[in-house]
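Bench log. Compound arrived from synthesis this morning; before running ITC I wanted a structural hypothesis for how uridine-5'-diphosphate sits in the protein. Inputs:
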Amino acid sequence: MAPSISLSRPPFSSFNSISSSPSLSFLNKPSTTTVNIYHNHAAGFQTAYRPLLVSCCSNNGAPSLDPINFRQQQVSSMPRPPLGVTMNDNSSSMQKPSYKWRRVLLKVSGEALAGDQLQNIDPKVTMAIAREVASVTRLGIEVAIVVGGGNIFRGASWAGSSGLERSSADYIGMLATVMNAIFLQATMESIGIPTRVQTAFRMSEVAEPYIRRRAIRHLEKGRVVIFAAGTGNPFFTTDTAAALRSAEINAEVVLKATNVDGVYDDDPKRNPNARLLDTLTYQDVTSKELSVMDMTAITLCQENNIPVVVFNLNKPGNISKAIRGESVGTFIGRSAQT
Ligand code: UDP
């Protein structure tokens, strides 16, 4: 029997009432030697931004030998500030710690957005994500998000029912990710985070089309970019979209937010003695067929040397911890991580 679908819950007609974002044209000022990021001072979105000056201190130009920076140097086409930011809020300057990542790609599955599963999307979950993302964008960390759609529709589960071909089913699944993206964007903007949705296939009345260099520009301006519609191709997943977009925009890590604490050596639901693994190599994941992400996604990360952190989205503070590069969940990389 085909799985049931509950497109009518919650009232998705509410999508109709999501207004477009307030004008952000004043944010489009060219930056000179400083980078403008925008700090929401709690009041209204339209009035509350003021620029923070972020000047970047370098490690004296010394080339870094760590593999992530090496990858950056190889593939980056856009000049990027070095690690470590000094935030200068008007007159008073204060030294901030260096964060591990400057640009991250957060993958949020549809299942995670559904929260307690009573409805397709739990607004408490989208708000929790928005708040944590806001806390790190203020630090100058650039955040891109890929959203899944499994809370609404999974192509593979529906393929074959009533003559629905897999490709068509997958396109419906990709449309589901756009619904989630628009919802998440609305939540983000409701607390003052400038956000853009880019879709892998054109839906120009709803969102921008995916344009790599434009996405990077948004990130550099302190906007959160939500990538929707997966890769734009059937037979793929949004995990693969996360790996792909991450490689394209030179994100330093894929942060995979899930409903579990990380990767276990056995199914924790069946085996109470299952152990949470702190660190794994790509090789471990593929050879042991650990269900972290699909093989295409993990292979793409491996080939491009993009680490993956799998962590629990439901624990308060975890998203911001993961984005700041603090130890959380399971780290997957080329070699064991310290
Ligand atoms: N999908 C697709 N191509 C992609 C990404 C997604 O066809 O590049 C479809 C596929 O049907 C999938 C659905 O979109 O089942 C929702 O994505 P996914 O299952 O990855 O979402 P998640 O599990 O992260 O919620």
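What the model suggests: The pocket of uridine-5'-diphosphate is lined by residues 109-111, 148-150, 154-156, 170, 173-174, 176-177, 230-231, 233-234, 236-241 (CB under 6 Å). Residues 115 and 156 are 22 Å apart (CA to CA).
ITC booked for Thursday regardless.
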